[in-house]
C-alpha cells in the first residue's frame, strides 16, 4: 500500500500576502478519501478504472492517485495554457501558498508532467481545491479524475481518418461508454465547451432522474501541450470529471458535506464492489433523519474599496463554522442613493449532518462570524 503524502504545516502556512489557505482547508489535505476502499468516492473511482480496464485491457491505463495537491502555478495554469488573465488564477478563486505555488484547482495540473515522464495513457484521481460559494453541492475541497490518451504515430497512420478525427471519434466513443457504464442506458448529448487545454472542447450530459446532468469536460488536447512534452507528432484526448457530483447522483447522497463525515450511519452504507451500473439493483444511500436547520441573517455595508467578494465571505464563514454551514445566500442588496454605499443581507443556514445543534451554539457561531466579518473584511454591521 502506498502511504499518503503528508504536507507539513510549514510548507503551507507561508507568511506572504498571497497566502489565503485557512486552517479549515489545511486540515483536509491528506484525507485521501478517494483512496479509502469503503468510501463512496473510492468506490466510484474503482468503477471508472474498471471501465478502462475492460475497454482497453487491464493495466493499459496507468492509475495515479497519490500525486501531491501542492503544485506550482506553472503546472496548475501555464502548463495547460490557462491565459494570464483567466479568472481561475485570481486569489478569489484559487488557494495560493505563495505567488507561485497553489493547491491544485484541477487534476489537469498533472497532464504535462506525466506526459513528460513518457506516460501515454493514464488516469489521475485527486483532491482539488477551489474557493467558492457555499451550498449543498459545493465544497471547497472535492475530487476529480482526469484521463489522457495519446495516439502513437503508428496508430494514427493505420487509420483512414486524420489523427485529429481519430482522437475526436475515440474520445466520444470511450466517454459515451463510460457514461453508460456508470448510468446505464441513458440519453446522452454533447455540448460545445471551452477549455484552454483542449480544442475542440465538449461537455457530455446525460438525461438522468428527469434532468440534464453534466458528467464531464473533455476534448482533443492542444498540440502545444503535446509538443512541450516532446510528442511533436502525436495526437491525444483528455477528459476530467468531478467525482462528488456523480457520486451524489449515483448513490443518492443529498449533501456534499456527507463525504467528510465519520458518522457510521453514513460510512456503514458503502462497501467496495457495491457499485451497479445506473444504480440498478444497488442499495442507494438511505438518508438518516435530517436535523433541523437554523437560519441566521446578517446585514452589513460593504467597504468602499470593492474588496468584498462572496467567495471571501464564504471563506470567513467556513473558517468559523466549518462543516456546520450548509448554505450562504444573498437575500437582499441595495444601494443608498445618497451615500452610494451598498448594503448586503446574507442568510446563513446552519445544520449539522450528524446531530442537533443547540441555540447557544449557533448564537455563539453567528457572533464569531459577525466579528470576523468586521475584522477580516472591513464591513460595517447594520
Ligand atoms: N480541468 C477541467 C475542469 O476542471 C476538466 C477537463 C479536463 C476538461 C481535461 C477537458 C480536458 O473543469
From TrEMBL:
<feature type="domain" description="FDX-ACB">
    <location>
        <begin position="289"/>
        <end position="382"/>
    </location>
</feature>
<keyword id="KW-0648">Protein biosynthesis</keyword>
<dbReference type="InterPro" id="IPR005121">
    <property type="entry name" value="Fdx_antiC-bd"/>
</dbReference>
<dbReference type="InterPro" id="IPR036690">
    <property type="entry name" value="Fdx_antiC-bd_sf"/>
</dbReference>
<dbReference type="GO" id="GO:0005524">
    <property type="term" value="F:ATP binding"/>
</dbReference>
<feature type="domain" description="Aminoacyl-transfer RNA synthetases class-II family profile">
    <location>
        <begin position="44"/>
        <end position="272"/>
    </location>
</feature>
<keyword id="KW-0496">Mitochondrion</keyword>
<comment type="similarity">
    <text>Belongs to the class-II aminoacyl-tRNA synthetase family.</text>
</comment>
<dbReference type="InterPro" id="IPR006195">
    <property type="entry name" value="aa-tRNA-synth_II"/>
</dbReference>
<keyword id="KW-0030">Aminoacyl-tRNA synthetase</keyword>
<dbReference type="Pfam" id="PF03147">
    <property type="entry name" value="FDX-ACB"/>
</dbReference>
<dbReference type="Pfam" id="PF01409">
    <property type="entry name" value="tRNA-synt_2d"/>
</dbReference>
<dbReference type="GO" id="GO:0005759">
    <property type="term" value="C:mitochondrial matrix"/>
</dbReference>
<keyword id="KW-0547">Nucleotide-binding</keyword>
<dbReference type="InterPro" id="IPR004530">
    <property type="entry name" value="Phe-tRNA-synth_IIc_mito"/>
</dbReference>
<dbReference type="GO" id="GO:0006432">
    <property type="term" value="P:phenylalanyl-tRNA aminoacylation"/>
</dbReference>
<dbReference type="GO" id="GO:0000049">
    <property type="term" value="F:tRNA binding"/>
</dbReference>
<dbReference type="InterPro" id="IPR002319">
    <property type="entry name" value="Phenylalanyl-tRNA_Synthase"/>
</dbReference>
<keyword id="KW-0809">Transit peptide</keyword>
<keyword id="KW-0067">ATP-binding</keyword>
<dbReference type="GO" id="GO:0004826">
    <property type="term" value="F:phenylalanine-tRNA ligase activity"/>
</dbReference>
<dbReference type="InterPro" id="IPR045864">
    <property type="entry name" value="aa-tRNA-synth_II/BPL/LPL"/>
</dbReference>
<protein>
    <recommendedName>
        <fullName>phenylalanine--tRNA ligase</fullName>
        <ecNumber>6.1.1.20</ecNumber>
    </recommendedName>
</protein>
<keyword id="KW-0436">Ligase</keyword>
